[in-house]
Specification:
Elements (H helix, E strand, L loop, with lengths): L3 H7 L4 H5 L3 H95 L44 H26 L8 H10 L4 H8 L2 H53 L14 H9 L11 H23 L1
Helix pairs in contact: 4-7, 5-6
Length: 330
């Protein structure tokens, strides 16, 4: 942390000015700086702890979401097929049991008849195929395969058709095009930094759809918000520039009008006192007035003046005329 003397010297104080300061003031300034530095360090530590807590919370949240998606995938890929095979095994065991019971009943009747008459009796029960185990309707198709997501049944393994394969291929191509276009749009034309097969593997590892994982990895939402904010700032800047230009135009128009008015007055004043008889304002001759003033001894007789007196009198008359014009203009 810099000292009080160093800070004062950086702001332009000389060594003499710093040394002439009251030591009590320097001590007080040092105490304020120490307190400010302590608070700054405490704030930095608090900010680091808050950032660490935020990162830990985000990691815990991501781990919990991944665990939930893993459990869902395990249920759909392991438990559901196991339940389906268990149902098949149960049906097979029930069928074998019924066949065995029917065969046992047949042999029992044959044995009893043979012991009673020495020959197979005519009324001995004949072997018949036991009725098949009834499967809930709607859970299997005509080929005996389970129907996925049938009401009241456990989802089984669906059968893939060429249409479904084409649809999945189309979805893959669509996802690739979407990722490229969206990344270039949000980054100003930059190329996607990672290959698509890597993104697909990462999305599978995170148990997320491809588009959701790509949008989360490259922060598409944050980039979109930054673009919207930048557009709003540019719009505000344009509006302020237009308003400033309008104000300057109005002010310039007022200045131009004032200058034009002043130029017109100056022109009229110049023409009124100029030599052009067409525009000059006619005035009466002042010779009689001068003769009267000379006779009344109000002004000295020009004929009785020397050269210096005449020059001084002429200058005085010019000043008086200028003063009269200024008073008339005001």
């Amino acid at each position: 942390m810099p000292t009080v003397a160093e800070i004062l010297k950086q702001t332009g104080f000389t060594d003499e000015q710093i040394s002439s300061l009251d030591p009590r003031a320097v001590t007080a300034f040092s105490s304020v700086l120490s307190s400010a530095e302590t608070e700054r360090q405490a704030a930095a530590v608090a900010a680091q702890k808050a950032e660490a807590d935020r990162l830990a919370w985000e990691k815990a949240k991501a781990d919990a979401e991944l665990l939930q998606r893993s459990n869902t995938q395990f249920y759909e890929e392991k438990i559901v097929p196991g339940l389906t095979s268990w149902q098949d095994e149960q049906v097979k065991l029930q069928t074998d049991k019924a066949n065995a019971e029917a065969l046992a009943a047949f042999y029992k009747a044959q044995n009893e008849g043979a012991r009673a008459a020495g020959f197979v009796p005519a009324d001995a029960p004949s072997f018949t195929t036991p009725p098949p185990v009834v499967v809930p309707p709607g859970t299997r198709d005509a080929a005996g395969r389970f129907v996925p997501n049938a009401p009241g049944s456990t989802p089984g393994s669906p059968a893939f058709t060429l249409d479904q394969i084409d649809q999945r291929l189309g979805n893959g191509v669509s996802n690739i095009g979407w990722a490229m276009q969206e990344y270039q749009r949000l980054t100003g034309g930059q190329f996607l930094p990672d290959p698509f097969d890597q993104l697909s593997r990462e999305a599978d590892a995170q148990k997320l759809p491809f588009r959701d994982y790509v949008a989360r990895k490259y922060d598409f939402n944050g980039k979109q918000q930054a673009i919207v904010q930048r557009q709003q700032q540019e719009l505000f800047a344009k509006e302020r520039a237009d308003e400033r230009m309008k104000t300057e135009s109005e002010w310039k128009a007022k200045l131009d009008a004032r200058e034009a008015e002043f130029a017109a007055k100056e022109k009229a004043r110049a023409e009124a006192g100029g030599n052009n008889p067409d525009v000059r304002i006619p005035v009466s001759s002042k010779v009689p007035e001068l003769q009267r003033q000379v006779q009344n001894k109000e002004i000295p007789d020009p004929l009785m003046m020397n050269e210096n007196q005449r020059r001084a009198q002429t200058a005085k008359m010019i000043r008086d005329q200028i003063s009269q014009k200024d008073q008339a203009a005001a």
